[in-house]
Amino acid sequence: MARATVAVSPRQATTEAPSLQRVPRPMPALKTYIVEDSPVIRENLIATLEEMVSLQVVGTADDEASAIQWLNRADVSCDLLIIDIFLKSGSGLGVLSAARDSGKAAKVVVLSNYATADMRRKCAELGADKVFDKSNEIDALISYCIRLASGGGETGGSAFASLA
Question: What is the pTM of this model?
Fold first, then answer.
């Protein structure tokens, strides 16, 4: 079967060209490092975040020393650091200080069962961008991550189940 060709004048080519729609590019995954000592909570958090957010976990630590060692490496980076306060050894407060001093431009959030007003204030003083309570603010954490991954601000919210 012969193919038919159609001649198009240069004028037709410019005036009758099909309209091109801009196809949105997928946002790159939010590179996330998680400091959490409970394997159950850590794995549930990773599964939930990776399912609901354009997010890639680039590493984890269960103690202060390991987290600080990772933060001090020149060959690693992340967009988001999620830190628990109580760890297998050391404290998330030490990780917060190290994150602030590392010079990395990551957003830093605390996810803790001990999110009292005093602890929230202390975390903010150490450089935390947000503090979320594990028992009842997982939905707010997920909403925050969604906004970060989409390049948005830090307002809004949605309802999701607790991890613990």
Answer: 0.77
